[in-house]
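Tokens for chain A. Residues wanted.
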């Protein structure tokens, strides 16, 4: 990280002389008016004036007697001679950050006023709120409905994992041992410049660059899901697990093993008002069988999407 110091700029409020220097021109060279510290600004990139070993150190102070800005290194006002002990520090410009292309990077959460950036962020925000609102409404906006049990079905599945070669990508330092690196790439470093008003007519410019992390594409032998075996049936069929045939067992390239198992028990309903088909999924066989065909329940149906709120089901009176 490198640092350089440059003079701030200011425009005379009285004669409109532009681009005066914060340290060099404490008074306007055209009309003699004093510099207004609050009007100082960061100069354009092509008009920066470097400061070498300047004597003004620290924040400026406003003279409590005459109000003129003075260097914090001074003990008495150079304009009226009054002591500066009770002087107050002048206002400073907010820190600014610029990318490698010279464009200003706004602080997080701050809308960019130029180029319609603020409007774009506002539109994105509205879209996000709309999407979130849609799912919230879909989940919680319900209406009462009567439903009747019409059937049952079940499904059991077993994931089959295969020990095989997979291609992945990560930081090279995180590549697992035994992996075969196929490609290395190092992204270009990203730099930005931070401008900090030092309050004495100068600003410090810090260049901050990210440290590129080398990325690796590699092949590694590992267990991964190759396929899923399924078995299905209805209430007249005893739930069973699918028959699994493994090509090879052990820990060799191409070897297989059983992975996660999952069982689903689905009860099918019909909305007695509009005849819409609905369903509820349960994880336990006993609960699934407790719903007999022909039984009626009162519950809540989502207005958007029409799904049945299974937790709301109660035997109809």
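Reply:
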């Amino acid at each position: 990280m490198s640092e350089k110091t440059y003079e701030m700029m200011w425009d005379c409020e009285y004669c409109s002389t532009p681009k005066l220097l914060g340290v060099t021109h404490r008074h306007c060279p055209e009309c003699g008016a004093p510099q207004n510290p609050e009007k100082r600004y960061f100069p354009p990139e092509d008009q920066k004036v470097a400061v070498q070993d300047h004597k003004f150190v620290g924040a400026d102070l406003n003279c409590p007697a005459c109000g003129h800005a003075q260097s914090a290194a001074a003990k008495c006002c150079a304009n009226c001679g009054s002591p500066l002990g009770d002087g107050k520090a002048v206002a400073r410009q907010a820190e600014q950050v610029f990318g490698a292309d010279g464009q200003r990077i706004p602080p997080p959460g701050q809308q960019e006023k130029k180029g319609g950036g603020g409007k774009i962020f506002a539109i994105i925000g509205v879209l996000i709120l709309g999407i979130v609102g849609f799912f919230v409404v879909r989940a919680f906006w319900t209406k009462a409905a009567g439903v009747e049990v019409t059937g049952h079905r079940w499904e059991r599945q077993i994931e089959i994992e295969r020990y095989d070669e997979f291609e992945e990508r990560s930081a090279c330092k995180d590549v697992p041992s035994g992996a075969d690196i196929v490609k290395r790439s190092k992204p270009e470093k990203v730099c930005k410049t931070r401008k900090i008003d030092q309050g004495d007519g100068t600003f410090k410019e810090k260049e901050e660059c990210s440290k590129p992390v080398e990325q690796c594409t590699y092949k590694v032998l590992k267990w991964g899901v190759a396929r899923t075996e399924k078995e299905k049936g209805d209430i007249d069929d005893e739930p069973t697990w699918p028959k699994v045939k493994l090509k090879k067992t052990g820990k060799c390239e191409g070897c297989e093993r059983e992975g996660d198992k999952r069982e689903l028990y689905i009860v099918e309903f019909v909305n007695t008002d509009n005849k819409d088909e609905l369903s509820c999924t349960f994880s336990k066989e006993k609960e699934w069988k407790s719903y007999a065909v022909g039984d009626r329940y009162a519950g809540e149906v989502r207005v958007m999407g029409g799904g049945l709120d299974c937790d709301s089901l109660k035997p109809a009176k």
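Residues 53-58, 111-116 have pLDDT under 50 and may be disordered. Helices lie at 117-140, 285-289.
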